[in-house]
Design brief:
This protein is mostly helical. It is 49% helix and 8% strand. It is built from three helices and two strands; from the N terminus they run H-E-E-H-H. The longest helix has 35 residues. 9% of the residues are buried.
Length: 129
């Protein structure tokens, strides 16, 4: 079917354009971040040189890869391991939120509905008598 080939070619072109644009965008902010910040992981403080610089990544603090201010305020440099850990924590937090599980800071503490020591004074008096 000729229509399917046209759709496929169009889709392939769109995907190729998106990949090229993403690579250009990433190369731009990565180079900027490497010029602004020292080559040290922001979490574990591992230092990097030209030999292992490929293991240092740019993390977007707000997790929006399109938010790339020129001053680098949305970036931090993280090693591969810390970067993976950061994103895993974000995914875990999102899964917990969707499951209705939140941190104790987000919800008020449950109040006790009973008072186990309410009659303690009376019980102690009975034992004395």
């Amino acid at each position: 079917m000729p229509g399917d080939n046209t759709k496929s070619a169009h889709t392939d072109r769109l995907i190729a354009d998106a990949i090229r644009n993403r690579r250009n965008r990433e190369a731009g902010y990565r180079e900027q971040a490497l010029k602004i910040y020292p080559w040290i992981c922001g979490r574990c403080a591992r230092e990097f040189t030209h030999q292992n610089l490929r293991e240092l990544t740019v993390h977007h603090r707000d997790h929006n890869h399109d938010n790339n201010p020129g001053d680098g305020s949305n970036w931090e440099l993280l090693c591969l391991y810390c970067h993976d850990n950061e994103h895993a924590r974000q995914l875990d937090a999102e899964a917990a939120r969707q499951a209705g599980v939140g941190s104790s800071a987000e919800r008020p503490a449950a109040r006790a509905t009973t008072s186990p020591f309410a009659n303690l004074k009376d019980l102690l008096k009975r034992n004395e008598d």
